[in-house]
Design brief:
The complex is a heterodimer of chains A (224) and B (308). With 224 residues, chain A is of the alpha/beta class. Helix content of chain A is 29%, strand content 23%. The two termini of chain A are 27 Å apart. With 308 residues, chain B is of the alpha/beta class. Chain B is globular, with a radius of gyration of 19 Å. Classes of the chains: A alpha/beta (224), B alpha/beta (308).
């Protein structure tokens, strides 16, 4: 899933400093799963903003709505009625950054602000801890690395690791970061594939990655 | 001969080779380089010029290499994959060749987290092993990565680094072999202090015939003080400084710790000369260039051989 985390409240307060009435929108997709932008978090952020503004002596009115998904025009359409019938100064989105962009595209005349920082494609390690697993390079080759991704999980995206900074299974950049190449070594060793790890892996073609420009996927069979 | 550099010729003639190292300044002062380099002249075959080492911005390695050439000192151009993509790398390599640079050391590069611009975007389009392959292809096939033929084929003596003390230890010799498979001609190791572990590593490399396929130079960095030794022991990933050396430094007057460090370095070099598969030493006297002569001379390695 796409993992995101809420921006510091101070940053959001600066965004809404000049506003008296805003619409705060959540998303029931990935950000609900990673506990950053679902209905519950929308409620908590709205309360926190209102309390902070009350303290400043300038109350703010915040309406709350959580859409099925913000990355789908069908659901973003549901904002039409509230936006049309209220004089909102802005719409705040608690989706990953796709959400506010969809809202901005659909509602051309209203200011849109992101309340989350979209962090990575990943998953939960334990309750309350998430980690990056994929960099969306567009040409998956993890089967060559024990089904672990060195592009996303090695600090240098090495194709022929581990580098000289691997110590005790950890990466030199932080004792909190596993050396993925150590994990690859252990797994390929268990699978009897160490000989494969001795082969030089040559240059990666990054055209399918962001380097090739903004990407688009077309399924002719589904197009209308 | 691959490139006919002095370093290559010294190896080819069967001599025990010595290289040094010079870190460019964090400014545009060329005078400073001349001063430091003067200490290395005649002491070593060639001098590594670091490339934004520890991810700190410094004068470009290639420019300093050219300054060394002008002084009659042979440079080893260090090149990291952190700061340039394959276009810039190949362009720089062609330029280096045109400037008369023959030795190139291929490195991944320290992560920018450790440097003076931790906010920077890193590149790592290719890695250090792929970089070796780039140089080999340019030199042996006269072609760029995309198979475009070079007009004017560059000649390189291709170097790389290894850290025998990083984990997993059992994979380290395989990784050396990967560098050889990619086309490396010479290797300089990380600074060595744990001689026992290093001998285990070298024995494996020797047994697998790898030391026949490239020249391995042992990395030597003299310890200046107990403080420096402790710092390297604790904070430099993959560096293994045994207590024994720290005790020796502690055993002498604080002002004499540097002398003791030089003595240790000389002993290490003597031991390296007797180690199977070691073809030379790479002396990294960090900001201590003025003591290099003492080390090289103390190890009985002066005068350096004349080759033509």
């Amino acid at each position: 899933m796409v993992v995101a985390e809420q921006k510091p409240i101070e940053e959001i307060l600066v965004m809404v400093a000049d506003f008296n009435k805003v619409l705060l929108t959540g998303c029931k997709g990935c950000v609900t799963v990673c506990c950053s932008g679902g209905q519950k978090e929308v409620g908590i952020l709205a309360s926190a903003l209102k309390i902070a503004r009350k303290k400043e002596g300038r109350e703010i009115e915040i309406d709350e709505i959580t859409l099925e998904r913000q990355c789908d025009p069908e659901y973003v359409d549901q904002l039409e009625e509230p936006i049309a019938s209220n004089k909102y100064d802005a719409v705040l989105s608690m989706a990953c950054s796709v959400g506010p962009q969809y809202i901005a595209k659909r509602y051309e005349d209203i200011l849109v602000y992101p309340c989350l920082n979209t962090t990575f494609i990943g998953g939960a390690l334990e309750h309350g801890v998430w980690a990056e697993f994929c960099q969306a390079c567009g040409s998956c080759g993890i089967h060559n690395f024990g089904a672990l991704c060195p592009i996303a999980r090695c600090a240098k995206s090495l194709m022929n690791g581990p580098c000289g900074g691997s110590a005790g299974g950890k990466c030199e950049i932080s004792p909190e970061t596993d050396c993925v190449w150590h994990l690859i070594y252990e797994r390929m060793s268990r699978l009897g594939q160490l000989d494969k790890m001795g082969n030089v892996v040559m240059f990666k073609d990054w055209t399918s990655s962001r380097d090739g420009g903004p990407r688009k996927m077309v399924r002719e069979d589904l197009k209308q | 001969m691959k490139a006919g550099s002095k370093l290559e010729k010294v190896f080819a003639a069967g001599h025990f080779a010595v290289t040094g190292e010079l870190g460019p300044p964090r400014g545009a002062d060329a005078h400073h380089i001349h001063e430091k380099a003067e200490y290395l002249k005649g002491m070593v075959e060639s001098v590594n010029v670091t490339d934004n080492q520890t991810a700190v911005v410094r004068m470009a390695s290639m420019a300093v290499c050219r300054l060394l050439l002008d002084m009659g000192i042979e440079p080893n151009l260090q090149m990291v994959c952190r700061d340039r993509n394959r276009l810039a790398i190949q362009a720089d390599l062609l330029g280096a060749s045109a400037l008369g640079i023959k030795n190139v050391l291929c490195l991944s590069g320290d992560h920018q987290k450790f440097g003076d611009h931790p906010q920077a975007k890193n590149v790592f389009d290719i890695d250090s092993i792929q970089l070796i392959a780039v140089l080999k292809k340019m030199r042996d096939e006269g072609k760029l990565i995309n198979d475009h033929e070079c007009e004017g084929i560059p000649q390189y003596f291709i170097g790389a680094a290894v850290n025998p003390f990083a984990d997993p230890f059992e994979f380290r010799v395989t990784r050396l072999k990967k560098k050889i498979d990619a086309g490396v001609d010479f290797i300089q190791t990380q600074c060595i202090y744990n001689m026992e572990k290093f001998h285990t590593y070298m024995q494996q490399a020797y047994d697998q015939g790898l030391t026949e396929k490239c020249y391995v130079m042992a990395g030597i960095t003299p310890l200046k003080s107990v403080g420096m030794a402790r710092y390297m022991q604790k904070f430099v990933p993959g560096l293994d400084v045994p207590e024994e050396y720290i005790e020796r430094l502690k055993g002498v007057d604080k002002k004499k710790q540097g002398d003791e460090g030089i003595k240790i370095a000389i002993e290490q070099i003597q031991e390296m000369k007797e180690t199977k598969g070691i073809a030379g030493v790479h002396v990294m006297a960090i900001e201590w260039e003025e003591r290099v002569e003492e080390i090289v001379s103390g190890a009985g390695l002066l005068p350096r051989p004349e080759v033509s």
